[in-house]
Amino acid sequence: MKRLAIILLTCAAVAAATLQPAEAEPSLTIGSKAPALDIEHWVQDGNGKFQPVTDFDSGTVYVVEFWATWCGPCISSMPHLAQLQNEYRDRGVRIVSVSDESLDEVEALLKKPYPQKEESFADVTSAYSLTTDPDGSTHRDYMQAAEQRGIPTSFVVGKTGLVEWIGHPMKLDEPLAAVVDGTWDREAFKQEMERERQFEEAVQQFGRLANQGMFEEAAKLLNDQIESTESEEYKEQWMMLRHRFRLMTGQADQETFDYYLEDLKKRQGTPYAVGQFGMMLFAASQNGGEVGPLAKETITALESEVEGAEKELQPLLYNALAQLHVIEDQLDQAIAAQEKAIEVADDRQKKRLMPFLEELKAAAEEQSAGTESPAGKE
Description:
This is Redoxin domain-containing protein. With 378 residues, this protein is an alpha/beta fold. It contains 15 helices and six strands. The protein is 54% helix and 8% strand.
């Protein structure tokens, strides 16, 4: 069993989880006193409304958000932050967005047009305080102290200077409104974050066991978590992880096949989702997994999706079809599907798809000579 398959399996379960060991408790968490801001460059000032701030004013709510010029989700969040700042401009809310890049990098971005808007980045971010702190001190005080490893991440600092909420800026609306209105339940959210931290730590432990080939121990951890977890949301994720583990390790049973057949049914009508499902099956097969009836059912589903799919999706879908035909030992159909993928692909995609077609044709020749099994089979 290839370790890569287990790593991919673990990452698929929780996008936010990493394989780094988790500490017992972050030094900055919900209810902690928010560190003072020590930011070097204040680039945007809310069109003259906001002055640089270090200590937090009592009665004012602050959103301290971390971003970078290279971060796509950070860029996508900018209009939403501007909208929130405008909405709460006269209600005692201040949004401060902090990069750790050089001033030159930030200023260069501001001069560029914002994607799909007739405005520059400077225009889009002018409503709030856009800043950068190249020495990284603010990043250390917040992101590292709270053990937040991905951006964008926002911290809501309440009217008493305590951290009330930590999360993605696109999910700010509800907690920000509650903090401003005085209805926010800080303790309940702290407990929710602690459950999430414990969940991610358990996922990391599972990943370590699986990567070390300790499959019995990994399976026991999964079963124990499913039995002991009270949260339906986390129980569902553990169930998904257990079925993926069984599929990848050749331990799939009828329960697992039924789980994935239901998953496939839910994906139908969304061509990209069906294609991704097919590629997941191919990865499982390549790593020694047994996919049972899933490949045949997914071929049928993909064939009904591909013709009506958007043109840019068709190469991916035909490629997934080719992979599924390999699982079913149908080399001729696999070659035909991969040729179709290349036919509808652009030049960049053609280069990526061609090696698999060559592999399929070579395998077909060897199979005809009776010397080799189909492509992708070990």
